[in-house]
Amino acid sequence: MSALDILYFILGLVALVAGAEALVRGASRLALAVGVSPLVVGLTIVAYGTSAPEIAVSVDGVLGGRSDIAIGNVVGSNIFNILLILGVSAMIRPLIVHRQIIRQEVPIMFGASVLFVLFALDGGIQRYEAGMFVALLVGYTFFLIRQSRAETKAGTADDGDLPKPTSTWDRHWSVQTLLILAGLGLLILGSHLLVEAATSIARAFGVSDLIIGLTIVAAGTSLPEVATSITAAIRGQRDIAVGNVIGSNTFNILGGLGASGLVATGGLDVAPSVLAFDMWFMVAVAVTTLPIFIPGREITRWNGALLFFYYLVYTVYLVLDATDHDGLATFSTVMLSVIAPLTVITLVASLIRAKPLATT
Q: I need a labelling partner for 291 at 20 to 30 A (CA). Which of 95, 128, 148, 177 fits?
């Protein structure tokens, strides 16, 4: 580990915090100005912006002949986003889940995850399949914007958690746009610095590209989502905090794999270990959000702690697997025979006790 790596890490962290604050502030004010609901801002502007590092890293990995980093980055980021980001955000402040998240966005995220699995089952993502991902992303974005504008005109849009402006210096759209651009720039710069420093250290210890993609790169490129969602949760902008994570996961698959698959001449190869475990775990995590989201439409601190716990478990599994540790078999047995069934029982019980969602 060099002193330069430490410096990059610190500078990256500072850039992430400053970028998240600027992005959330600019996007929130812009939502009021153009009549787009804060939920859609979280699902589009904020989610797509904070997912930009995933696309950049995935495309760079493919161009450098390391498709394992591209696949591992997307799969690892989606797991990281739900388990760690929503977990930590909910532990800071319980998150109210908008009806649209439960009824529309989570099923879309789940559908994108299943589509990735179906495409990957033959061992890779072909270029035409990547093109389908991009086309679906474009259609999804236009649908969200039109839906929000229609609800605004009809007077049925939910204003969400956007607070009333307490200052006037950022009320003009040009300032709001500059805040968003500056925030995105800082987020991308901060992520790049952190990923470069962490990857350099990992390579010194001989860690594989796939493990780097699933852990260090996934966590590094997801740090904008971490900073943005936690900042939004602290500021009380819970629609942005939740919408950012769900929107980012959908964007990572459709945009990240779509863009990297299009630039890959022979398509993206999917590693056997991803086919055997990681992509299925990603789908399981996506499914788990429904029984957590539905009861009371709130992600409680207990739910957040449970999500965070499972991210720690997943990380331990990856480390044991990467090092061929003797304790991997025992660890897997305990998880599958004890902890996983108890978690399923708890989630099902919560779902049974859930009150039906209101129709309005």
A: 148
In angstroms, the Cα distances linking 74 to 101, 148, 274 are 21, 28, 11
The whole-number mean pLDDT for each consecutive block of 10 residues of the chain, a chain of 360 residues, reads 78 79 77 69 71 78 80 90 89 82 86 94 92 94 79 58 55 80 84 76 73 80 79 75 83 91 87 88 84 70 88 87 80 73 66 52
Which tokens in the block code for residue 182?
Answer: 């500056």
Could you report how far apart the first and last alpha carbons of the chain are, in Å? Answer: 56
Question: In this structure, are residues 165 and 28 in contact, taking their beta carbons and an 8 Å threshold?
Answer: no
Q: Rounded to whole angstroms, how far apart are CA atoms 208 and 228?
A: 29
Q: How far from 205 is each of 47, 200, 212, 275, 299, CA to CA, in Å?
A: 33, 9, 11, 25, 38
Task: Please check whether residue 98 is in contact with residue 158, taking contact to mean a CB–CB distance below 8 angstroms.
Answer: yes
Torsion, CA 114, CA 271, CA 288, CA 119, rounded to 10: 0
Cβ proximity of 114 and 252 under 8 Å: no
The span from the CA of 205 to the CA of 256, in Å, is 28
Contact present, 215 and 74 (Cβ < 8 Å): no
